[in-house]
Design brief:
Oligomer: single chain
Bound molecules: methionine sulfoxide
Radius of gyration: 19 Å
CATH superfamily: GAF domain
Length: 178
């Protein structure tokens, strides 16, 4: 019996040592945006698989996006008591609370749709958490048809987001379970 236990422990230790970690992210070196998203989608799906914790999943999704795309800022705001409150993100410190209809995030929340902003200076009411941000995309997160938060991505360059980003980011946020 003891002998079998020892074998079992050995087997488990071997597995723990040699099983590749799910946390390894393969970064695709290409300028093809769709290809980058296609490489990332199944990897993020695997990262989130079986993990029910919302904070953990949002944190890993933000980190994976930041690693692949090297954006200036990528993160989440979650609806709490009728405000958007800062959630897990990657990048410089950011504004903590945004009202309904305020800035790009609040507008995407109010309109329940993805907003692409090629030049933040040209967006009335844009909230400049950082003066370095020049273009932005905000994708609403839905739960039972209601907006429960937004994914916000900022770039230091103008005109960095388009329909390809909207398409894939909308697919990505569907992986989040609330
Ligand atoms: N620019 C956003 C505010 C959030 S930060 O960019 C992280 C907006 O106008 O809603």
């Amino acid at each position: 019996m003891i002998k079998y236990d020892i074998y079992l422990i050995y087997f488990e230790v071997t597995l723990l040592t040699f099983t590749p970690m799910a946390e390894d992210l393969k970064i695709l070196q290409t300028t093809d945006k769709a290809a980058q998203y296609q490489s990332l989608l199944p990897q993020i799906e695997a990262l989130l698989h079986g993990e029910p914790d919302l904070t953990a999943n949002l944190a890993n999704m933000a980190a994976a996006l930041k690693e692949q795309f090297k954006w200036f800022w990528v993160g989440f705001y979650l609806v709490k008591e009728n405000q958007l409150v800062l959630g897990p993100f990657q990048g410089p410190v950011a504004c903590t609370r945004i009202g309904m209809g305020k800035g790009v995030c609040g507008a995407a929340w109010q309109q329940s749709k993805t907003l692409i902003v090629p030049d933040v200076e040209a967006f009335p009411g844009h909230i400049a958490c950082s003066s370095l941000s020049q273009s932005e995309i905000v994708v609403p997160l839905f739960n039972n048809g209601k907006v429960v938060g937004v994914l916000d991505v900022d770039s230091e360059a103008l005109d960095q987001f388009d329909e390809t980003d909207a398409l894939y980011l909308e697919e990505l946020v569907k992986l989040i379970n609330f």
